[in-house]
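seq:
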Amino acid sequence: MTQVESEEEAPPGFAALLFAGVGMMARMIEPESLSEPEDWSTLVDDLEAWGEVPDPYSITSLLTMPTSRGLNAVLQADSLWLAEFLPWVSDGRIRARAKAAPEGSRVPIGGYSYEGRDVMILRPLEEETEDSAGIISKALESDNAEVAEAELHNAGMVLGRYHTKALAARITPSDQSRWNARNQWIEEALRATFLWRAPFSKNQPCTLSLMDVRLRDISGASLRIGRTRLADALRVPVCEFPAMRDLASLIHDLSRLHHDASSNLDLLPLRLSLIEGWKSTTPAEWASDDAFYSHRGGLAIWEYEQCLMDILEATSHQSGAPQPAVEILRYVKSYQKRMFDNRIISALSGMAGFVGAASLISTFPPEMSQIPIPLACMALSYGLFRVYKRMSPPPERPFTQLG
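struct:
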């Protein structure tokens, strides 16, 4: 994407940036000057503080570090602080997530906003500890399935505990029209040769979704809550999302680690460990068979969205084909075709049920000799529907394993 002149207003001390590409546009802000401790007090002077923040005039040293999600600054005051700038508009629920997170989570404890928009979050600088991504990567490289599966099960449990707390904090009806519209926009922006719309499974209401969660965000029993990914600058969310989307984010991150490690371990039992861990601690209705029902989207369509967002980000800065997202998407058409073929069984079930109901109505009140045929049709309809349900791909099966 190319930087073009922006007419957007920015908070005092910040510059408004605008990047444009084919079918895409990203609006961002960044500090104009942040190299000396004195710059900090000037920068935050017109911002509204919330939570715990260091005294702006007590900063004795400042070190900035660019990251893929925005600028970081390490501040020395009475103690060490980490400031994480939010260059693009998020959904505005970072504070709500932090408040809803289970005890022991690593959350922002303060920050600054401008006219209702969070522009940075602050937290005490954390000591470096080994996270789930590091443990799992080492296990994958050494083909140690036992360690990898145990850590993935734990990661799923940590995510599930957050969702249990999120259920108590916020829940709203599912928003499948906006979910499908978001996927449609991404597909059109990428000129994708595949399309996927779903009626979406039951038991996927909107909640305080983390928007993006990685295995590196989990350490032991602790979850780190932070900034959203670049895709949210390219397509600002106008809807809320279900907990299943967070699980898909972790599942797809597992695929990245598995690909990078060139592991010989089968991906299916690894995914199953992560899913089972999540199901053991998340609200039961969100982990039900109906919620995972692939014929109506289930987990699969959220994995599909994760792949699309990887490609969207890579396209925006021309960094090459992101793997394994590109490889996974090669199998989407086959996956969809299989589910479409399964609908033949569903259609036969519907036809048998219709014939049975029509026969009863046309002969009402039926004689005893006429009852067996409608009953047989209805029994056949029910049996075929059960077969159709069982043909739904299980959530632990990757797109690349259609067997």
